[in-house]
Specification:
heterodimer; A: 105 residues; mainly alpha; elongated; B: 248 residues; Arp2/3 complex 21 kDa subunit ARPC3; two-stranded antiparallel sheet; 2 strands; 73% helix; 3% strand; globular
Amino acid sequence: MKRDAKLVILLLVLAAVIIVVPLFALKGAEFGGSDDAGSVKVEELQGEYEPWFTPVFETALNGEIPGEVESLLFCVQTGIGVGIIAFLMGRFVERKKHEKSDTSC
Amino acid sequence: MTNKEKRIWKVSIILAAVLAVGQNASAMHIMEGYLSPIFCVAWGAVCIPFLVKGFMGVKKVFTENPKAITLLSMAGAYIFVISALKIPSVTGSCSHMTGTGLGAILFGPCTTSILGIIVLVFQAILLAHGGLTTLGANTFSMAIAGPLVSFGIYKIFKKCNLNKRVGVFLAAAAGDLFTYCVTSLQLAIAYPSQNGGVGASVLEFLGVFAPTQIPLSIVEGLLTVMIVVALENYAGQELKAVGFEKAD
């Protein structure tokens, strides 16, 4: 149990390092999405390319989703996920506590 | 599977074969409108059998194995979180992970495809990320091909009695990376290079996606091990219910 706690911390630190290092190693890089890099490549291979279908939300808005709103929506997605995980994990942890106190008395 | 379910499963395979074959086959998420309608239909068709089987898998969890419902929703939530995080990488561009490894390890690739397509629909409609026309292709790469690889690696480790956590790490990381390889292949078939054809095109697209994705797939592996360790400590009975840990 204690060893596992150490392992989890180590894994988190490692993950954080892998994510943060490029930011400092490549100062001034754009860090655009690789999806966009994909569309650039398509144009390189095919010449001018006009997507034949635009996202439904953008059609409804008659333009692109504003950047801030897009990050809001991504946050909503993360929030939904984290909420569910945290709720269930909390239940598991409490359950284990109860099981322990049940067996001890 | 009951007889009726078997029949539906068979019909779905035939449907896939009919729709996908005979069409001259052409990124993380392929952008909306970037695949011609033929490919949209073809990739969608390939997904049908997996989704049908996956749907049955989800149903089975709810009817026969209610203890595993919490783990199923956790695997789905994990995909939600992980695939919303855009992470900077060594190439100077950002990409995001898939998060499908956990589901594949716990429930198998077919059931995971249902969890994956929920996330893809969410992103396609609300975030203009990926797309409805490319949903089939994206579902195949992220929710089917990736999990298949994860599941395979995890099974090999289990069979050979190798370290489970190392297996989880490799399964999640390889599944993530493979998703992008399939995406490259899908784009290459749609956009063969004028001098060199599909092969040259695959390399071009891999060149865009793979270097960005390698560090991210390592991060995904680490995070997946982390959540599995947490589950091992606190959700032992659920893991037994899905066969991840041996029943007493």
